[in-house]
Amino acid sequence: MMKFDKDRLILGAAGPVLALVSSFVLTVLVLLATGLDPIEPIRIMIENAGYSDIQVLIVNQTGIYYLAALAVAVGFRMNLFNIGVDGQYRLAAMVSALVGASVELPGPLHILLIVLVAMLTGAFWSGIAGILKTTRGVSEVVSTIMLNAIATSLVAWLILPKNFGVQPEGSNNLTTGEIAESGWFPGIDMGQGNGVVYGFTFVALALGVVYWFVLNRTRFGFDLRATGASESAAQASGVDAKRMILTSMLLSGALAGLSGMPTLLGESHTYSLDFPVGVGFTAITIALLGRNHPVGILFAALLFAFLDKASSSLDTFGYPKEITKIMQGIIVIAVVVSYELVRRYGLRRQQQKVGEELAAGGALKTDKEVSA
Amino acid sequence: MSPWHDNFAPPCPPAPTPSGQGECVINASSPPAVELHGITKRFPGVVANKDIAITVRKGTVHALIGENGAGKSTLMKILYGMQKPDEGTIAVDGEQVTFSSPGDAIARGIGMVHQHFMLADNLTVLENVVLGGEKLHGIGAKARKKILEISDQYGLGVRPDALVEDLGVADRQRVEILKVLYRGARILILDEPTAVLVPQEVDALFDNLRELKSEGLTVIFISHKLGEVLKVADDITVIRRGTTVGTADPRTATTKQLAELMVGSELPSPETRESTVTDVPMLQVRNLTLSEAGAVAAAPLTSAAPPDPARATTVLEESTEGRKLLDDVSLTIHKGEILGIAGVEGNGQTELIEALMGMATPDSGVITLDGRDISRVSVRKRREGGIGYIPEDRHRHGLLLEAPLWENRILGHVTEAPNSKRGVLDPKAARKDTERIVREYDVRTPGIDVTAASLSGGNQQKLIVGREMSHAPKFLIAAHPTRGVDVGAQAQIWDAIRDARREGLAVLLISADLDELIGLSDTLRVMYRGKLVADADPATITPEELGSAMTGAASGHLEGTEEQSEDGDAR
């Protein structure tokens, strides 16, 4: 029994390792092809990661990626591809920032309100795709991509000064106004100018535990996973597929809405034109790399945060920091290929082993054999 | 005879011509059409082929018989180039060959008619035949001429301009055969060609095969129906557990001898001994009607008679007005009763199951389970209410193939004990119960953490049967419960159903295996085009009589005659 479990662990790790190694090798080849030293930039990045201030940045970015990747993973677990996490994240951050700036409540309530508004906005936006899919059969891939574009325009329109936007003195930037201090999520100051670890990062980690529990230990999670594994079997088992699609889209959107919270509550306290974008797209890769598993996603988020933050000084050494983008892109392809390879290999291997063990008489004792 | 025989006859022309009858002389010294020697194929988890030797004489019908899972299909896939043998040699017309794709096999004059037809429904027969073979005779008048030529030559009666979706199963099969002949096949492999046919259609097919044989073609015929094999074959090879265990002469062999060769032991019988039917109705269905959602008729319609244009037009009229998949179906199943439904596949059986399970919403009608109206109840509530379900396609509807066995044990019963408590799963209890099912239902597996996909079909099915029986169902839907299951598992599944019936279970049995239906059922109904058209007493009915009702030729109460019941299949 233990042998199968160990096998599964090794096979589980084989996919990501294969993907990372091959993407690393390919990146080195790209650097060689452009006539650059392939090892030096990587050495610089690792050295950068040794500085405390960069470490704080990496940890904060990890929390953001983690939440967004969980949002993507919820969809993936039931074969829904929510490409709209980015749009849901931006719209939710914007709307919750607006609401947060317009009210003043006692501390925890203020934060709770902002968080709730963010979740509801994200869920609302993804819910549109969910309803389109369940009622009209529109592919969520198409509708969420379109909703991303609509979200971009909607945010741009809402943030105009004639609507809800505020233009700070002597700045070209537009914001939604500053959230009062009661709506700031307390963080951990690392001192000596090293920066503050967002408090919401810990909420993100806690949500990873919740994600695991809901998916693996509840009826709802079982239904969700069953639907992802085989929609026809799930339907025959009594899962209402339409309701499941809508529910998981809403959950995914709510999590996407949360992924703006570390930045909003911990640092910017307003939504502005320079609020980070593209988080939702990177999160797709992270969820893939992390195999939709809460621990896997954590490591993948950490890796991507490292690539993002440790590469920022590469330019000053004469290396384009875009090489990390190349690496991230190659990881996407490598992940898809290597996971499929490992999956097929694992399935074949297990069938072989079962055949062997049965031939060797290793089957569990059956009643007949016991009585015989 | 060695494949390197010096004195072999020149191979026959690749495409037969109307006057070709005399051109290809079959004499004793001509090499065998196909000679397989020492074929071994190792396969993960399933029965492999092991040292198989078969010699197929030219111009004969050679039957290859064996139980489900004995390795017949694998062997034919090897011969057709879909799989490569690990060891052994293949010789065609005396020449040793190696195939790396079906293309190579086709070039050598080998054609295969698959069990599941590979036709495009929305194209005509002509279009289907030329599809992929455009280079042979073009796609126009020349191709049409060729098709009619072949059709006449072998008495296939194919109309090139009919739409395939309007054709019945038997006609579709003839199109498949024509497709293969059109590509110049001299050796035809037919994989379980009679599985989808009723007895009358089987006879028509056999006439076609004899026609092919008389023209010098060779037919390899895969089957596990012994009565049919004896009727049509010139030679018989028996395969058991992946290896050839013997050959038989159909002129002298009996079905019993063949069956024993095939199984290696005494045959199990689906016979139910004593009646346990009570007069307490468990499931009542009244006036259930379900219309097709779209206008396109996808389900095959059946015809035993040669196609006539008049029928095609009536079918078209029907399909435009939204064909009724279930037409006013009413039935009652009592506690302790097994009600069997006979019918050619695609006549509404699937829709009936889906309506009973709640997966399809009927237009009208009432379903009552144990006195409770469940017509508008969700699938999950119906399952909780005591409906067990052995689906016809276990891979699509019964299992999560890549999930471990214990998670598959939860599937369909996630809300019930021991799988969960108050919305939270109880993996420990579920695992323990899975171990019990594995033990009691003799599921052969090294453990409960392996994926369902790594079990053989029979063991997967036993797991499903065990799971469904574990929740003390009041009513069980058993759709083809022993399809693709080995003999040992088949007997165990029949036993499980019979045991539960004795304890008052009501069973709806749907099966393509007429012997299983007749042997297991207490009551028989025949379904044709969505209607229950006839009923019969399983004690007196014969498969032939049932077969004619399945084509719509007979209706009402079928009176069986004892004399005819002798010449059925062995099983």
From TrEMBL, chain A:
<protein>
    <submittedName>
        <fullName>ABC transporter permease</fullName>
    </submittedName>
</protein>
<feature type="transmembrane region" description="Helical">
    <location>
        <begin position="326"/>
        <end position="342"/>
    </location>
</feature>
<dbReference type="InterPro" id="IPR001851">
    <property type="entry name" value="ABC_transp_permease"/>
</dbReference>
<keyword id="KW-0472">Membrane</keyword>
<feature type="transmembrane region" description="Helical">
    <location>
        <begin position="88"/>
        <end position="105"/>
    </location>
</feature>
<keyword id="KW-1133">Transmembrane helix</keyword>
<feature type="transmembrane region" description="Helical">
    <location>
        <begin position="111"/>
        <end position="132"/>
    </location>
</feature>
<keyword id="KW-1003">Cell membrane</keyword>
<dbReference type="Pfam" id="PF02653">
    <property type="entry name" value="BPD_transp_2"/>
</dbReference>
<feature type="transmembrane region" description="Helical">
    <location>
        <begin position="141"/>
        <end position="160"/>
    </location>
</feature>
<keyword id="KW-0812">Transmembrane</keyword>
<feature type="transmembrane region" description="Helical">
    <location>
        <begin position="195"/>
        <end position="215"/>
    </location>
</feature>
<feature type="transmembrane region" description="Helical">
    <location>
        <begin position="54"/>
        <end position="76"/>
    </location>
</feature>
<feature type="transmembrane region" description="Helical">
    <location>
        <begin position="9"/>
        <end position="34"/>
    </location>
</feature>
<feature type="transmembrane region" description="Helical">
    <location>
        <begin position="245"/>
        <end position="265"/>
    </location>
</feature>
